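Known limitations

Structure tokens in this collection are predictions and should be treated as such. Users comparing against experimental data should check residue numbering before alignment. To illustrate the layout, the record for ArgP/LysG family DNA-binding transcriptional regulator is reproduced below. The input appears on top and the generated tokens appear beneath it.
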Amino acid sequence: MDGLDSAQLRTLAAVVAEGSFEAAARLLHVTPSAVSQRIKALEETVGQVLVRRTRPCVATGAGRPLLRLAGQLTLLEREALADARGPLSGGGRVRVAVVVNADSLATWFPAALARLPQRNGLSFDLRQDDQDHTAELLRDGSVTAAVTAQREAVQGCRVLRLGAMRYRALAAPEFAASHFVGGFTPSALAGAPLVVFDRKDRVQHRFIRAVAGRPLDPPVHYVPSVPAFSEAIRLGLGWSLVPEQIAEADLAAGRCVDLAPGRHLDVPLYWQHWRLESDVLNALTAAVRAVAAETLR
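Generated tokens:
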């Protein structure tokens, strides 16, 4: 800690979170010149460029460890302040940034937040990213915790296995009759339109490779919204893998059919969080593990 100024660290975090020096100045209630001076002073202390002056501003490799430190200090400081003030004062505000994959966010994860003991001033900044990429936000210090497919602990973090999210191959009955009349075969998979969440989403292609024994390149519709993604499948735009928690209702109602009965894809999920002794983080971890144990495979 010797040589690092807490105000400068908070300013670094604000610049990266807000994306610009001007927006950080508004958040911190100082002038853009003051923000620039703090960042310059911190860079001189470290002897490295810490912020890439792009739009939005991003932390450099040297800036990421300091960004993570800034977030850790902020969490512990706010938590200590809330405890010191006591319940009668209303405590202080504690905001925890968490990144979660879209399917967990649409199914089981909100129940974990709802299970936390009520605490005045506690709020969450939820980010969404593909489960194969969520750990990147832990590395750069943008978030405190992540639901991720990465089982190797990010430096400075703890990792816990949550279970596996099961996916099933679904399509509208008419689509299945038109494109898979001969079954779920490699030739049918190569030509049938596929619905994919975004360009980071490789779950479907992983499943296709497992079924066909080789990579295939079917036509793809990108639909980066969980409700619209499911609706696109129901309306016959294409087929896709759907989380079992969402698939069951559509199968029961006859809106979709299972294209590969008996086959599925299980995606292991892990909970990674900063290695801190924090009451808020411990309570969140316990709630996430409890709900995951009830809902994941």
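For this record: The first helix runs from residue 6 to 18. Residues 165-267 form a domain with the D-Maltodextrin-Binding Protein; domain 2 fold (CATH 3.40.190.10). Please report discrepancies through the issue tracker.
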